[in-house]
Specification:
It comes from Lysobacter silvisoli. The protein has about 300 residues and is an alpha+beta fold. It has seven helices and twelve strands. The chain has one domain. The chain is globular.
């Protein structure tokens, strides 16, 4: 295994709730109120749609607001990897990745271990450090690659917090049978004062429609037993993934990062998740108030 190269779950497509469009010569993110499944190929019009996208939307009768999924791993932390990330806007390379306690940062002597105060108190991040997560799922309808996955990348605190909680809870109540549970991604909307009462969308993870939690747990236990009898070693798969993630300092490849920066760190536009833009609005408001106070002091 090549040292320094993170071995991540094979990705056969993307899950997004928006797209990147070209406007006035700039490529800017555009929010949406439905899921979109794409391939990993881009053309001049953006990401090429995956064949499952059309099939699932046709079955849903329009917009795709739920996705039937299963997970690859029993360990919640392997399915959802979340950290604070800083990318170089010029080169697109990851510069620093931390968890609020410690971080791996690119320095003069290579990658260095440093304390991580979090994005709000980090001078190195200078406001560009964000929570960033990758969530791998198997589309449980029409996907013929059992170990392949679709990846949802997000900087939404609402999505990250919700998914993290759901994964921990489902793992606990199912006795650790997380990879066998019949689940679905569900798009939810909410509005806040920070979003100026406009709807913002985030991703939730729930039991498959038409099933109770008890039914889902029973199906997971049956599937788990069937897998064990066939020789499927889930514990070994989790351990292989754990070692693969630990093999590299940063998860994203250099060739993938420019697309991440374009989508979540746009220049002159708002990122796909509305709440990710809230600190900017707060900063502008604070600046106006401070300016008003300064003017009053000189009058």
């Amino acid at each position: 295994m090549l040292k320094g190269l993170a071995i991540t779950p094979p990705v056969i497509g993307r899950v997004s709730i928006g797209r990147v469009v070209e406007r006035n010569g700039k490529r800017l993110p555009e929010k949406d109120d439905q899921f979109t499944l794409t391939t990993q190929v881009q053309n001049r019009d953006g990401w090429v749609l995956h064949p499952l996208d059309e099939a699932l939307k046709r079955e849903a009768g329009g917009k795709l607001r739920t996705l039937p999924v299963r997970l690859l791993f029993n360990d919640p932390a392997l399915n959802l990897r979340a950290d604070y990330s800083l990318f170089d806007r010029t080169s697109g390379r990851p510069m620093c990745v931390g968890n609020g306690e410690s971080c791996r940062r690119v320095g003069n002597d290579g990658i260095e271990a440093q304390p991580c105060p979090g994005p709000d108190a980090c001078r190195f991040g200078a406001g560009d450090c964000k929570a960033y997560a990758r969530f791998n799922v198997v589309i449980d309808q029409g996907q013929d690659d059992t170990l392949g996955s679709f990846v949802l990348r997000t900087t939404s605190f609402n999505t990250i917090r919700t998914l993290a909680a759901r994964l921990q809870y489902f793992s606990a109540v199912s006795g650790g049978h997380l990879a066998c549970l019949p689940l679905e991604l569900k798009l939810r909307g909410k509005s806040t004062t920070m979003s100026h009462r406009a709807a913002i969308y985030y991703v939730d993870l729930v039991v498959r429609s038409g099933m109770s939690l008890e039914q889902a747990i029973e199906e997971a236990r049956v599937l788990g037993q069937r897998r064990r009898e066939s020789g499927f070693d889930q514990a070994a798969l989790d351990e292989a993934a754990r070692q693969g993630f630990a093999n590299g300092a940063f998860e994203e490849l250099d060739e993938d990062v420019p697309a991440v920066v374009e989508e979540f760190y746009p220049e002159g536009g708002a990122p796909l998740e509305a709440e990710a833009a809230q600190p900017v609005a707060a900063t502008n408001l604070r600046g106006k108030l401070e300016g008003k106070v300064a003017r009053m002091a000189t009058e």
